[in-house]
Design goal:
By secondary structure, this protein is an alpha/beta fold. The chain has one domain: Alpha-Beta Barrel (TIM Barrel), CATH 3.20.20. It has eleven helices and eight strands. It has an eight-stranded parallel β-barrel with strand order 1-2-3-4-5-6-7-8, surrounded by seven helices. α2 runs parallel beside α3, α2 (24-34) packs across α11 and α10 (213-222) crosses α11. The protein is globular, with a radius of gyration of 17 Å.
Length: 247
Amino acid sequence: MRLGVNVDHVATVREARKGRDPDPVRCAVLAEEAGADQITIHLREDRRHIQDRDLRLLREVVRTRLNQEMAATDEMISIALSVRPDVCTLVPEKREELTTEGGLDVLGGGPRIAEAAKRLREGGVRVSLFIDPDLDQVQASLKAGAQAVEIHTGRYADAPNQDEAAAELHRIADAAALAQKIGLEPLAGHGLDYRNVGPVCRIPSIVELNIGHSIVGRALSVGMLDAVREMIAQMRFRGPGREDPPR
């Protein structure tokens, strides 16, 4: 299973003082050195963390894959077609939210999303849609022209008890299995951390996780290299056919 490391919140700390440090580009290089398979960033319309300069520098230095999360707007599509990340993940975006709160409504925004996906694919950029674990949204993503879906794991991560977490895991697994069956690459992310990543890793259809906040938070204690290596170790140890590590 691949790991995409989201470095947005490195930029969040930097932007608190509008300075130069910490540098998300340097942290991305360290993440790759530690074994990350992809660097993920979200260039938001309000530019609250990642800036245009970060995106362009990352395009120059990233040696694995660069995944640009973005709203399906003309501005963002133009930027993506200019910079040419390897992947663009279309996400919902509200200015007042602290972080992305749910999946993209592909059913409700079909023509707009399909047009964005078409423009990006014609520009040579792979298209993924960030969606809730809903079977209708998976089907709609295929019709919209996506090549992959990133399944929102936030409700699983925030579940107040084991029963609700288990129910949400079933929804994630069903959505991933359907995506794989109809030819979409199943990915997952949001709210995953060192404690809850294991059960998601045991879903056989999912081939990639995108994780940011928990890795950046851990990096404040142990450094980015070790934080990424620890997450990779958790993912490998807790993968299909493995038991949870002893407590």
